[in-house]
Design brief:
Length: 102
Amino acid sequence: MASKTLRHPAIEPTHPGELLREVVIPATGRSKAEISRLLGISRQTLYDILNCKQPVTPTIAVKLGKMFGDGAGIWLRMQAAHDQWHAEREVDVSDIPTLTAA
């Protein structure tokens, strides 16, 4: 049975751009300009992702998954975890009732 890693709820999940910037791209030995060219995205788009200013979209996740051989899912799950963590802290749901089945 696979164990699920539990994250402390106060710790912000890593934005996928941070992982790309700190680990993945440096491991390739290629420049960010070359990576953006190979991905078919603008350097500005890549830099915005690397600086956590732009999310990894499904389209970009597919491209990253192909480039790094790990599939789109990992990039999408990282982005979703990051987005959910922020939404749960920023969206006021205090006036929304929790419904139960009748």
